[in-house]
Design goal:
Blueprint: E1 3-16, E2 22-36, E3 39-47, E4 54-61, E5 66-72, E6 75-80, E7 85-92, E8 95-111, E9 114-125, E10 130-141
Antiparallel strand pairs: 1-2, 1-10, 2-3, 3-4, 4-5, 5-6, 6-7, 7-8, 8-9, 9-10
Length: about 140
């Protein structure tokens, strides 16, 4: 069964560095939500409120993995598999940075027309100190 509809998507990213400093960013926008072969796919655009730069984003969730792909002012390709360390990259106008991501937990659930997911992971950017991170996703009908 293939599902395809517009949703209101809220994506929250949390990061805590090795010194205990925390940062949170939240994006709320309209997104296209598809379910294909058990994979929940969200496609949307981020628009930077200050500079107006547009970033195309795609997130895929399945029982065994999550993938986040972003392109535009920055380019990111992140792949998560529970209890595995994988390499990813983050590309900006200042160059490409290699990342290692150790995924601690991946959880998702669908209740009625609502979808919730959370990925908890440790990020090692360019071999630096670990950063504890989480991405939380909530999709609701428009």
């Amino acid at each position: 069964m293939i599902v395809r509809r517009d949703v209101w998507l809220t994506v929250t990213g949390d990061q805590t560095d090795a010194e205990g400093r925390s940062d949170r960013n939240t994006t709320a926008c309209r997104a296209l939500y598809e379910i294909k072969d058990g994979i929940h796919i969200f496609t949307y655009k981020d628009i930077d409120p200050e500079g107006g730069a547009v970033t195309q984003s795609r997130m895929e969730f399945a029982d065994a993995f999550c993938r986040i792909i972003r392109s535009g002012a920055v380019r990111t390709s992140m792949y998560f598999r529970p209890l595995e360390e994988l390499e990813s990259e983050y590309e900006t106008g200042f160059g490409t940075f290699l990342m290692k991501i150790y995924t601690k937990r991946l959880a998702m659930r669908q209740v009625g027309d609502n979808f919730h997911a959370r990925v908890s992971y440790t990020l090692y950017l360019q071999g630096g100190d670990p950063v504890e991170c989480a991405v939380t996703v909530k999709a609701e009908p428009l």
